Amino acid sequence: MRYVTLTDIYHHSITQKYVRRSGMAHAISVAHHAFDLAVKQEVNPDWAAKAGFLHDIGHYEWYSDGEWDYNLYREYDIHPIKGAERAHKLLVRLGEDKYAAKEIAHAILFHTDSALPQGEFQFSPLQKIVHLADEMDKQPGNLHHYRNIDNREELALIQQLDQKVEHYFSSISTKHQG
Ligand SMILES: [Fe+2]
Ligand SMILES: [Fe+2]
Fold first, then answer.
1. Which ligand is closest in space to the CA of residue 60?
2. Do 142 and 149 contact (CB within 8 A), yes or no?
3. Nearest partner of 111 among 94, 91, 92, 132, judged by Cα
4. Beta strands in the chain (DSSP E)
């Protein structure tokens, strides 16, 4: 059973403020990629879609003279840490299952190496999926953060993904009953 839908998350003012900051179109596209990868790898696609959607919710605005300054960003960024915490708080506030909120927050924390010390790490399948889904949507010159789509199209894509997640779980339960 899903306690929180992607549509609930999309409509929340925290999402509108912080996910929009780093690109709503990018977030939605990463959510779709993460869902597809999760279905193929038999990882929970609801968690993958949510982590994909919220993976960049921790971005700060690295502006100098009105332009995004990537040197400042590289020097000082902690967006995976901030994002993990922010997404966790949002999900729990919306009524998400606490274990799901933790797994999603961890996948956000490990989606990029900017918050990690150097070394070898063992990532969970969900964490690998969110990282890969993000890589799949990246564009040269970080254009993926600036891509825009119409608000109605955003909502339609989010609702479509909710339907896919629900269809996945209903087909799984039919399989187990049959
Ligand atoms: Fe990121
Ligand atoms: Fe990203």
1. 1
2. no
3. 132
4. 63-64, 67-68
For the ranges 23-32, 86-95, 136-145, the lowest mean pLDDT is seen at: 136-145
d(CA 107, CA 123): 9
Residues, beta carbon < 5 Å, ion ligand 1: 56, 112
Report how far residue 159's alpha carbon sits from residue 2's, in angstroms, rounded to the nearest whole number: 14
> Which residue ranges form the domains of the chain, and what is each CATH number?
6-177 (1.10.3210)
- DSSP, collapsed to helix, strand or coil, labels residue 1 as coil
Express each pLDDT in 115-134 by its tens digit: 778 888 899 999 999 999 99
Q: Within 10 Å of residue 138's Cβ, how many Cβ atoms? A: 13
Give the pLDDT band (50/70/90) at residue 70. confident
Which has more confidence, 143 or 156?
A: 156
Query: Cα(40) to centroid of ligand 2, in Å?
Result: 21
Residues with CB under 5 A from ligand 2 (ion): 56, 134
- How remote is the CA of residue 54 from the centroid of ligand 2, in Å? 9
List C-alpha distances in Å: 101 to 106, 126, 129, 157, 163: 9, 13, 16, 22, 20
Residue type, position 178, single letter: G
